[in-house]
């Protein structure tokens, strides 16, 4: 950065005058900061602008899933995060008369991580933020994005001091701009992109965080779940981090709703249902949010792309808002990396929306279905079936998630396609050279070919070998057999996968999704050819690189 000058305004903060970078990100919420760290880890110069002077110190999300944790693993922060969060081992839905309507045990997601975690958002954001800054992410706080102009060569993002919106400007010249600026996204509106309402009535949600004087105390508050009462759903989590419990009161909006939820007495009434009283601790946050189910009609406008709540919003019943945003970041970052390196033209970026949009909407609809089971009026408005909340009717968070839409993934209509394709790849523990760990802890981020037997070079033609080289594709032989030259399948999870699917190889993309699988090792060359076709039909340039976009 150069030519700094001081702007007027509270605290006389310093805003740089002109900045050049590869990617500018508007919004330093959980999704913007994760995208920033992923892109910086790939070697790009990333600048983030955030309109507030400090990161928001109150949690919104209380849950994230194993897929999110795998992205944290890629960033090298999963173990640190693991110390702060708590596995969610069980979920139950109970009625106001304490009848258990549904109960689930939450286990391993097959991603190498647990299916669900409860967390205190500011603590986890501290870790992502620190990692991003270590990787070179530059963050300009108290800077509001006010204008965006695109040219053939890049994007000009104009920001102003949030305390002096009529004051001097800072111009950020970037190759790409990401709008990670939340549900009321300025970036989306500036691009003239409308939001589609998916048809669920707006819900008002009172989020209460209760901090214990003695967090070790035993209270009649289940691990996690929903308490269902007439027109109210109460979401609860005992361990949102190690010191705090979360209780959320979600109610269909009518005229009296807001006043009712704003009354502090309401918060204590609901806390009391779980045995939480003023002499045991304090309410550290008591805020009302409104939820809508929406999706942006386009996720890309040239060099400007939307991620996180800027692209989609959901009702909170499945705890998937931030998870979806972090999937966006993982999906988009490897594609932007390829474009910035000149490995692909911008056509590749169209696959970001085509893959992610239907996936995000699929999960939003699952959350809507969950809400509709307990709120008849919501079911009617969303044109969904109102049903009893019974075990078998429960959408299963995780197992039933849709595959990603069409893009750099083997066509789902291909007769050889299997359900594992277009979904997160298996990751399990392996052993090698005296060490036992999750497989990806031994590998570099990027493309991987996981196989039951070795794939010798002699089996591949020149094109296939150069594809492997250009992608930096890592060949990973995993077997239960003893031997020094492969990864030992310690728990047999890979063998179980190979046997259950009838496949002996699977190709994993940099965002951990399975591109495709092969029935035998002899079919691996065909799988590589299919990958090559998929990449080249979406803008990948094999052989000579494009003039780099730096
Ligand atoms: C009560 C509640 C409970 C939830 N529970 C869960 C859960 O359990 N699990 C889950 O996965 N999700 C949950 N969610 C959803 C989750 O919090 C959101 O999906 C997530 O915060 C979206 O992250 P984001 O980074 O996209 O946007 P945000 O967190 O909204 O961040 C956007 C950032 O952009 C900044 N910004 C906006 N405009 C500008 C501008 N013009 N210039 C500069 N900066 C700007 C904002 O200040 C903000 O910091 C919950 C949400 C709420 C409210």
Automatic annotation (TrEMBL):
* Record GO biological process: 3-(3-hydroxy)phenylpropionate catabolic process
What span is annotated as the signal peptide, if there is one?
Answer: none
- Record bears the keyword Oxidoreductase: yes
Any one GO molecular-function label of the UniProt entry: 3-(3-hydroxyphenyl)propionate hydroxylase activity
Q: What keywords are assigned to this protein?
A: Oxidoreductase
InterPro entries assigned: FAD-bd, FAD/NAD-bd_sf, PheA/TfdB_FAD_monoxygenase
FAD-binding domain ranges (all copies): 21-365
- Name-wise, this protein is Bifunctional 3-(3-hydroxy-phenyl)propionate/3-hydroxycinnamic acid hydroxylase
Native organism is Streptomyces arboris
């Amino acid at each position: 950065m150069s030519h700094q000058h001081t702007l007027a305004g509270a605290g006389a903060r310093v805003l740089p005058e002109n900045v050049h970078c590869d990617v500018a990100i508007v919004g330093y919420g959980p999704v913007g900061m994760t995208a920033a760290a992923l892109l910086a880890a790939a070697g790009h110069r990333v600048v983030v602008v955030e309109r507030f002077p400090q990161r928001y110190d109150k949690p919104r999300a209380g849950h994230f899933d194993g897929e999110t944790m795998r992205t944290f693993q890629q960033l090298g922060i999963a173990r640190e995060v693991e110390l702060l969060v708590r596995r969610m081992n069980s979920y139950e839905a109970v009625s106001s008369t304490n009848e258990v309507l549904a109960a689930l045990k939450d286990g391993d997601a097959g991603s190498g991580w647990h299916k669900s975690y409860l967390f205190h958002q500011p603590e986890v954001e501290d870790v992502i933020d620190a990692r991003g800054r270590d990787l070179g992410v530059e963050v300009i706080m108290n800077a509001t994005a006010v204008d965006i102009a695109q040219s053939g060569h890049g994007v000009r993002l104009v920001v102003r001091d949030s305390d002096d919106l009529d004051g001097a400007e800072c111009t950020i010249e970037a190759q790409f701009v990401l709008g990670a600026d939340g549900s009321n996204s300025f970036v989306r509106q500036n691009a003239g992109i409308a939001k589609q309402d998916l048809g669920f009535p707006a819900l008002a949600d009172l989020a209460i965080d209760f901090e214990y004087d003695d967090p070790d105390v035993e209270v009649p508050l289940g691990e996690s779940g929903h308490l269902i009462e007439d027109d109210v759903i109460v979401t609860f989590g005992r361990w949102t981090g190690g010191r705090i419990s979360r209780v959320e009161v979600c109610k269909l909006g009518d005229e009296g709703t807001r006043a009712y939820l704003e009354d502090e007495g309401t918060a204590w009434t609901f806390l009391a249902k779980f045995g939480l009283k003023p002499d045991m601790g304090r309410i550290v946050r008591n805020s009302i949010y409104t939820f809508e189910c929406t999706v942006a009609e386009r996720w890309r406008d040239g060099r400007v792309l939307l991620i996180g709540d800027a692209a989609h919003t959901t009702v909170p019943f499945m705890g998937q808002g931030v998870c979806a945003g972090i999937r966006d970041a993982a999906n988009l970052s490897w594609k932007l990396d390829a474009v910035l390196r000149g490995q692909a033209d911008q056509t590749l970026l169209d696959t970001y929306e085509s893959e992610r949009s239907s996936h995000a909407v699929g999960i939003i609809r699952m959350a809507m279905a969950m809400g509709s089971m307990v709120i008849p009026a919501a079911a009617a408005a969303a044109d969904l079936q109102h049903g009893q909340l019974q075990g078998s009717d429960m959408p299963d968070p995780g197992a039933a998630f849709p595959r990603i839409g069409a893009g750099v993934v083997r066509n789902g209509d291909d007769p050889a396609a299997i359900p594992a394709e277009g979904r997160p790849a298996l990751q399990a523990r392996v052993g090698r050279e005296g060490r036992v760990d999750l497989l990806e802890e031994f590998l570099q981020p990027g493309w991987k070919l996981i196989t039951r037997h070795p794939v010798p070079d002699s089996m591949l033609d020149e094109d296939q070998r150069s594809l492997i080289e250009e992608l930096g594709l890592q060949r990973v032989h995993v077997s239960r057999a003893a031997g020094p030259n492969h990864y030992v399948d310690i728990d047999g999870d890979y063998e179980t996968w190979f046997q259950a699917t009838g496949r002996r190889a699977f190709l994993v993309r940099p965002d951990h999704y399975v591109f495709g699988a092969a029935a035998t090792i002899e079919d691996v060359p065909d799988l590589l050819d299919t990958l090559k076709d998929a990449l080249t039909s979406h803008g990948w340039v094999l052989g000579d690189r494009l003039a780099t976009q730096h």
